[in-house]
Amino acid sequence: xxxxxxxxxxxxxxxxxxxxxxxxxxxxxxxxxxxxxxxxxxxxxxxxxxxxxxxxxxxxxxxxxxxxxxxxxxxxxxxxxxxxxxxxxxxxxxxxxxxxxxxxxxxxxxxxxxxxxxxxxxxxxxxxxxxxxxxxxxxxxxxxxxxx
Length: 148
What we know:
Number of helices: 4
Shape: globular
Largest sheet: 5 strands, parallel
Structural class: alpha/beta
Strand order of the largest sheet: 2-1-3-5-7
Distance between the termini: 18 Å
Strand content: 15-25%
Number of strands: 7
C-alpha cells in the first residue's frame, strides 16, 4: 500500500467560478516547459479516475451541489487542492451575492496554493505536497474515505 502513489497521481481539475487566471497557470504546468506528466502527474477527464481534486475559484451558487457531487464520485483515498486566492478566501469576489464562499465551506481542503494567479511552480509544489500527504495516509493505513 505504501507504493500506491509512487508511479502516478491523477488529478481532476474543477473550476467553481474562477476568472480563468488560475486555470491558465494549471495548463501551463502541462506544457513542455514544466511537463508535469514526466513526474507522473496526469490531468484526467473524469473524477472517477482521480486521486486529487484541483479546484480553482470561489464556489458560486450554481457550482455548490456540483462540486459536492464531483467530490463524492472520486474514489478514496482522495484529496483536495485549492489553487488561487479566490478559492482560498473568496478574493475580490468575497462579498458577491452569488457566492457560497471559499472552497473549504463546501469541500474538505488538504492543500492551499496561494496567489492571484499562482505561478506554475507553486501549483506543482502544491500537488507534490498533496502527493506526500496521500503517501503518509497510505502508509498509516487509513485509506478509508478521504484525507484531511
